[in-house]
Amino acid sequence: MFDTIVWATDGSPLAEKALPLVTELAELHGSKVVAVHANEVLPGRLGGQPMLADEDDLTATIERRVAELCEKGISAELEVRTGVRGVAELIADAAYDCGAELIVISTHGRGASASALLGSVSRRLLHAADCPVLVVTPSHDRHHAGVASV
Fold first, then answer.
1. CA dihedral in degrees (140, 68, 96, 87; nearest 10)?
2. Strand partners, 104
């Protein structure tokens, strides 16, 4: 069903919350996983400088996760998108370019209303992506998610 799944990650512990679901879906469907990291850079005078000071460390963390997926027998690769466009747009472009059928992203899951539930990147990605977006909250319990029916 899903030949290619994008795992949208910034290398944070929150983003890691989606990895077990991504792994399970990839194993179930024989999917390739493309870990997409959007490296938003500053425009203008400071153009080309990453928004995050620890960008190299975050990329190294994601590279380790991709290697772990490969060790499990899952076809996986890292795609780093760099640009001044928003993170959601960079992720959506990468998903389109690799022919992804699904994007999986984590969100904080705070608040009671839908607008507060989704983080700004998750919310923008829902509008920017050309494929379905699965948003995972930190309290996600994959054993009760009915993953086989996704």
1. 70
2. 7, 134
Average pLDDT over residues 56-67: 90
119: CB partners within 8 A, 6+ apart: 107, 108
- pLDDT for 111 equals 47
User: Residue 112 falls within a domain, yes or no?
Assistant: yes
Instruction: Please report whether residue 66 resides in a domain.
Output: yes
Segments forming the whole domain that contains residue 86: 4-139
Domain CATH for 112: 3.40.50.620
Degrees to nearest 5, angle at CA 13 with 143 and 105: 60
Pairwise pLDDT comparison (62 vs 144), residue with the higher score: 62
